[in-house]
Amino acid sequence: MNTYDWIVVGSGITGSALSYELVKKGFQVLLLDPNPILDGATRYSYGGLAYWSGTTELTRILCEEGHQRHQILSDELGVNTQLRELDLILVVNPDDDPELIAQKYRYFATSPQFISIEEACELEPLLNPQGMSGAFTVRHGQVSPEHLNTAYIKRFKSLGGTQIFDQVLQIYPIQNQAVQVTTHLEQYEAENIAICAGGLSRQLLKNAGISIPIYFTHTEILETPPVDLKLRTIVMSASMERFQLEAKSTQPELQPLWEKPGHELAPFIVDKSAAQLLDGRIRMGQPSHTFSDVNAQVNLLESETLIRQEITKILPTLANLPATCYHCLVAFSSDSLPLIGAVGNFDNIHIFSGFSNPLVLIPPLAQRFANFITGQPDPIITQLSPLRLMKLIG
């Protein structure tokens, strides 16, 4: 049986970043993932870096650290992450009250500023002026999520880390001193395991008899091939429907339903949004559903039709572009903060998942967690322990 100091499950951005930071500390690390082709939430994200969005001392510190980390990651990892800054346009729906939205934005480290329809269309000429009652804007970072993920894994492997493509079937704690992992092909043992499997994290831990308050949405996006049409900005909804959905679906009275397949915990939402990567691909979306089953079937044809209908309202020239519809799971927690640390009474089983602002927060938190488990006290990592939310499922 192959043994390691750490096994990290999931090679999206959470797993790749954490694996890299652990191997930098001198640990023997195995990174496990069933798929050699990146196909989770990292692959289909917009690459957005919301440096501006901290609303508490904790999140403001982490957003600033994330900002600083991204400035040096290309050089540190040896791969260009395609970091850049753009204007983010937050479109106000015709029926929404801009003043109510502005009140929510005033808590952010950098508050998005209200602009008129004319000013919004000046920043983004592809916007439909009839599809909004105004907009907010703020400067916003962007990377290529695939390039960043690849960079982390490449550097991880160059430092001696091991990556194996195999599906985890079961996790067995061994007298709280080690962890054994059974996959399709092999068995592995490690002193510690970190679950970084995004929307699958809850199910993996449930299979091990561990209940944890991490949740997931089923989300779809449309992705075009590289096109000549140019978006100057990233466009999203000012109402932040996704965060409202997450809050509604994790109310205490709904907790038992998350344990049973066949339930939709809250009405689905569509966040009208679009972003273009430097290679010319445009990603548009995005419907989100809170189905309780990770294997729930989603009708991609219906999702594509819905996305195109919604995009027509704000960016009509994008609505008929050739595109493919993709589905993924997106992990979240009930308080919009990630879950980081040992789960329940299992000192050797850790979670590193549930990021609502992932591409900003993951680099600094992966670094902090690696420092923490090597003995460096960190009140931020302590605050993000899953224990803070365990009463929800107790």
TrEMBL record:
- Which InterPro entries does the UniProt entry name for this protein? FAD-dep_OxRdtase, FAD/NAD-bd_sf
Molecular function (GO) terms for this protein are:
oxidoreductase activity
SUPFAM superfamilies linked to this entry: FAD/NAD(P)-binding domain
- Transcription regulation as a keyword? no
Q: Which UniProt keywords apply?
A: Oxidoreductase
Q: Domain FAD dependent oxidoreductase spans what residues?
A: 5-370
Give an example GO cellular component term for this record. cytoplasm
Q: Which domain of life is it from?
A: Bacteria
PANTHER family from the entry?
A: FAD-DEPENDENT OXIDOREDUCTASE DOMAIN-CONTAINING PROTEIN 1, SARCOSINE DEHYDROGENASE-RELATED
Q: What's the name of the protein?
A: FAD dependent oxidoreductase domain-containing protein
